[in-house]
Amino acid sequence: MELLTPDFTNFPRNAWEKVLSKVKKAVVFMDDRCAEALHWSGGVTALLDAGARNLKQFSSFEACSVNEPKAVFVVSTLLKGRTVDIIKDIISLSHFQYCVVFTAVPHSVHLLANNVTAEMEGSPVFQQFEEKLCEWMGNMNYTAEVMHAPVVFAPVSQQLIVTPAFAHLFPLLLPDLESINSKRPEKKRFGNLIDLDLHSLPFELQIEIKCLAASLNAMFEATGTREESFAVGPMSRIIAGELANHPQAKNRRKTAPNKASIIFVDRTLDLTGAVGHHGDNLVEKILTMLKPLPGHVTDVQVDMLELTSLQQTKHSHNTVAPGCLSQSQSPAARSLWEAMLTSKHKEGVMEIRRHLVEAASKEKLPIKMSMGRVTPEQLCSYMQLFRSSWGALESHCGVLQLGLATAQTLRHPCMPRWDACLAFERLLLQALGDSNFPAVLRQLLPLMKPRGGEDSSASGSRLGEDECGPDELILLLVYLYSLADEAQPVDEEEQEEELEKLERELIGALTLVIIRETELSPLLQKLTGCADPAELTTERAHSAVEEMFDTLRGLSHTRDHLKQLRSVYATSDGVHQATYRPLLKQILEEVFLPERRECPDIEHMSGGLTDLLKTGFSMFMKVSRPHPSDNPLLFLFLVGGVTPSELRLIKEIAAAQKPGTQVLILSTRLLRPTDIPELLFNTQRLTPDIGV
Length: 692
Description:
Layout: H1 5-15, H2 17-20, E1 27-30, H3 32-39, H4 43-49, E2 54-57, E3 70-75, H5 81-92, E4 98-103, H6 107-113, H7 124-137, E5 143-148, E6 154-155, E7 160-162, H8 174-182, H9 203-222, E8 225-232, H10 234-244, H11 247-255, E9 258-266, H12 272-275, H13 282-289, H14 331-342, H15 345-362, H16 376-384, H17 390-395, H18 397-410, H19 415-434, H20 437-441, H21 470-481, H22 492-515, H23 522-528, H24 538-554, E10 569-570, E11 579-580, H25 583-591, E12 603-605, H26 609-617, E13 633-639, H27 644-657, E14 662-667, H28 675-681
Parallel strand pairs: 1-2, 1-3, 3-4, 4-5, 7-14, 8-9, 9-13, 13-14
Antiparallel strand pairs: 6-7, 8-12, 10-11
Helix pairs in contact: 9-10, 13-18, 14-15, 14-18, 15-18, 16-18, 19-21, 22-24, 25-27
């Protein structure tokens, strides 16, 4: 039986059916992570169509009036600690007689979180919680229901599903290994990240990984899939192992009719591709330039004022609700979004123009055709035609939001910086082939000048808009440190000394750049813990930058354990320039090789004993090990995020190398370059927030 990808892109929507069947006449309280998953699966319209009376934030400051007796809570977390407190607060301030609670965490994980290791019949944790709900409502005869629904997936496109609930799950780095080792006796310390197993991780991270494995299992269960798991990287090994050994997965694999392969890949093995500006993708730029929707990791705010006749004032953005990129209602907008996501920048912009021209012609609006380069002014002039007709606005609202997002990005004052970063990355790539690492790193020093300063080249230009600010400098540092191993080798002791001295200079220079900023970017606010530049002391900025360098130093070692896929760099051969070689491209080329060669770095993870038996037999008879290309459907799960330009790359390689294979991408999030510094320097990777 052929399994088609729509089964999978429909699964996230189908996971909501259980919730939708309970929301009639209810006020729904939902946490941000579940709200983001719903946003890409039909949005609030789906709830209202199912009969919900209202949707409110999951917060202790919300409640309902006397004439609202029914509530449905949808949370992505364990029913423990803070989550329980908020549910209790809302119920205590309201007058409910009927409460339904949905959690994205399965009952088996609730048992683990309560230190119950025995197999239990039924759902005792959920039943106990139902009694508590009745207690809080004030009458044991009122109705309470508690159940699990795997509402963690967001179908961003036909090819990509992300998991907002796990957006901050990120592969561990050397400082995390040190932190784990510091709590262990000397003889039981780990030498390398690859040696870690699930049980050596902190409790919160174990729970997070078990929840992710259970969610994937639910997806494979619902689509009747029997998967073979493979892993590249330490965190991927732990997740793939957890999925392979999932108690329900073993039974499913005996009977499921559809075969698929899933390869988990750690983002940390290739950070160059995640912080680089070489992607040539329109969506990557939109995600970077426009502000995120409040509470969302992926989607952004699109200013809709241009479609109204309101005057632009500094408060006018509060008058009209923002638009966004997720357009699940309109087929035309959906196909435009798919094109923007997986085509090159220029093609994406041309597609926008084509869709706007088609929509205007359909509505008989007086459009002036123009060929040649697409400009933001031209796009806006097309979109303003729709203002004259409410019907036209309503019919094409989805396409117009994507058009506005594009125009606002193209004319954004920070756009020149994107090209400045790209030019500098190209220079650094060439320099790596000819020089040692400190010599290449030294090239960043002249850039580390406070913006708009006396010696700034841009003092005469437009306030240094194309000048690199602190955010861009941090991205360039990550870019370069992730490639440090590719530089020309030199005498180690000499390099160590030179590098230490240079790093001290860079730390000092970057600290100065940060404290001279008149406004702190969202990234700097997170790194320094300060919202206002006036509060930011030199000491605070200096220690934040020092901590950043502790993490940077380990980035060049993330591929040390690999045997074959050790490099993401191709040196210049005199004819061609040095280039970046994406790890994903190398993995897929390995997988699709016609001779099915076994790659030592793509490790097959299977459920325990049978695999050991196979290995034993293989001494006497030929037993072929599973290979990722054996199955017609291939999943790539990127732990730590995927970029829009990688989506295009995957699509192109699959089409060229093995046309019959369907490749579906799962990822913790869709990345913009500035997400990476936040995940590296400002995320509690060992102790994720599990709501406790």
